[in-house]
Write a structure and sequence with these properties.
Layout (H helix, E strand, L loop, with lengths): L7 H8 L9 H9 L3 H28 L2 H21 L1 H11 L6 H21 L6
Length: 132
């Protein structure tokens, strides 16, 4: 199955909350339900906060004069953003899919089905009954 991926400019626009054209609908579903969906959500959150973090880091470093404090503040801010993004990841991904016309909870249902199939394959291979 070939999924049309957005170019770098459209991908960045999507990361900042923009809506992609309808031709990328299947890619958005893949982005929300692939094996690395949590990492993608985390990267999305960090990309969104990066410009503000850079400005604050330079501002604290130049005007505050204490680069270690600026670096510590930036790290603490990144940890807080990561916590918030990961806490809301399921809801934000399902809401994003809703904007593309998928039914409510579709992303969670697709991931649940994929995980159940993987668990079944695991059981078939590794959880065989012992021979008597």
């Amino acid at each position: 199955m070939s999924v049309k991926r957005p170019g770098p400019a459209r991908w960045l626009y999507f990361q900042f909350g923009g809506r992609l054209p309808e031709q990328y609908r299947e890619w958005v579903l893949h982005d929300a339900t692939c094996r690395t969906w949590v990492l993608r959500v985390l990267i999305r959150g960090l990309i969104q906060i990066a410009p503000l973090g850079a400005v604050l880091f330079v501002g604290l470093g130049v005007f505050g004069g204490a680069w270690p404090i600026a670096a510590g503040a930036l790290l603490l801010g990144l940890l807080v953003v990561a916590r918030i993004v990961l806490t809301n990841s399921v809801d934000s991904v399902d809401a994003r899919l809703l904007r593309y016309g998928f039914p409510p909870g579709h992303g969670s249902a697709v991931r649940r089905q994929r995980d159940a199939e993987a668990a079944e394959r695991y059981k078939e291979v590794w959880r065989q009954q012992p021979l008597e």
